[in-house]
Amino acid sequence: MTKTTAGLPVETLDVPLLVDAARFALSRVTVSPQQLSAHLLVDPYTALWLLDDLARWRVVSVARGGSSARQVLIIPAHETTVVSAITRHAGIPPTPNPLEPLTHPGLTVQHRAVLDHLAEGDSNREIATALHLSRDTVRTHVAHLCERLSARNRTHLVTVAHTHGLLPNPHLMSEKDERE
């Protein structure tokens, strides 16, 4: 269906499908059209369309270059706010976008990946191996994360990240636990 915003046509999908896509995206660090397509059982074109709508809402980044994966820009703790805003505005982001203040551009995809591994208790060597980085690069990412989140050390970093909703609920089973 075609809707208009600021007098310009905007292609958008049904709001419930967009809300489901937002919920899925918020549970991840990055999301690709293939992941979204598989999760929502929609065709790849529809998944791209959904990601474009989520980019207008600033829930995910705009696609760049040849990569189809999008960085998730809002932490999972804001899911209720995101769902409420999308629903209240019938899927079309107003100006100003009420979700803009919730974005966290300070953490890169690499930072989020390192943070996820830190939360799992991985050492720098394990993180470097898993992410195909050098240990020095991992050390640098940890230092940047500590600086950006005002954390004293790795343990405090994970605690602060959980407090700010940058990591999944610590009481839920981790992927590592599921594999064992």
TrEMBL record:
Signal peptide location: none
Superkingdom of the organism of origin: Bacteria
Ranges in coiled-coil conformation: none
MF-aspect GO terms: DNA binding
InterPro entries the record matches: Sig_transdc_resp-reg_C-effctor, Tscrpt_reg_LuxR_C, WH-like_DNA-bd_sf
A GO biological-process term: regulation of DNA-templated transcription
Domain HTH luxR-type, chain residue ranges per copy: 100-165
Listed PANTHER family: DNA-BINDING TRANSCRIPTIONAL ACTIVATOR DEVR_DOSR
The name this protein goes by in its record: Regulatory LuxR family protein
Origin species: Actinocrispum wychmicini
Lineage of origin: Bacteria, Bacillati, Actinomycetota, Actinomycetes, Pseudonocardiales
